[in-house]
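Example record

One chain of 106 residues, shown exactly as stored in the release files.
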Amino acid sequence: MRRSLIFTLMGVLTLPGIAFAQDAAGEAWLKPFAVIAAGLGMALASGLCALGQGRAVASAVDAMARQPGAANRIQTAMIIGLALIESLALYVLVMGVLVLFVKWPA
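Predicted structure tokens for this chain:
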């Protein structure tokens, strides 16, 4: 644990020096980090949305099993909730696409 912390600290302290040593074309390193950030953001949002949707559906099915008479109202609330949960993944996808297709300075 301590060794990995030391290597991480060394990397953090040495990488900015390399970046500042570049000439005017030094902005070219932004594009790979934008791709990584968009990918990690979408992966995180998709995974958490999947967990949230699974829990919402499980709770709705449990509620329908306990009160079959209220199944229509529970199902309607569940569908609205699933749409709101899915909107998070769509917003992250839009932001990721915007980050990927922005014109970076050269």
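Notes: Helices lie at 2-20, 30-66, 71-100.
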